[in-house]
Amino acid sequence: MFDRLIEILKANPRKIVFTEGPDARILEAADRLKKGGFLTPILIGAPEEVKAAAAKGGFDIEGLEIIDPATYPGMDEMVEKMVTLRKGKMTAEQCREALSKGNYFGTMLVKMGYADALLGGATYSTADTVRPALQLVKAAPGNSIVSSCFVLVKGEEQLVMGDCSININPNVDELVEITMQTANTVKQLGMTPRIGLLSYSTLGSAKGESVSKVREAAIRLSRMPLDYKVEGEMQFDCCVAPEVAALKAPESEIAGNINTFIFPNIDAGNIGYKIAA
Description:
Distance between the termini: 17 Å
Order of helices and strands: HEHEHEHHHEHEEHEHEHHEH
Number of helices: 12
């Protein structure tokens, strides 16, 4: 799945910020990325603490950049930029306090162009990881929302699920946008999206407010000039089991062979991806 992405990164190396530098899982990832040579890690934290944790775990981070917000020489410039971005919602003192933490500091490194990407969540909650990005980086041009997706790999099986962690109860427009954002991620990973919009109904087998929302999103997507297939609304078994799809959706080109799943709300998404994982 990731071969194409790795080749792209090798041709155009990028920097990724790890907001929780002393965490063993982060250090292991940084070690592996250093050996791989296709993504340059930046570790956030006190250098002594990060190096001690790496030595304890036997991780090689020699030569990797470690930045401590407490001693960062560009902090005044960063505070000024963040005050501007927050548009009066935070004072300079509040911004400086926020930037003393790895999640906000790392996000501003990305926003100011020093790094290209950020990874967090080893010790920060999902909310504390995502909030700085929503406040400072915001949605990509042409998008009204930000969404998430999870990539699940087990042997040769590769599945993508969205949105499982950000949008609580997306409306029809948001569900369409989530689908398109997730499909774009799937294509970046070198896969061809075959998308199922999940529901407790399959193509009109049941009724309800949630069913209507998912069905309308599927209809709108079917009218768009997409270069991938979308089916919905569909029950999960119809998405993944060819024998079920043959009975419930015999005319579908992709039912029974879905690799990308769009959930109707965060309850279903969060529960679903954790069961699958």
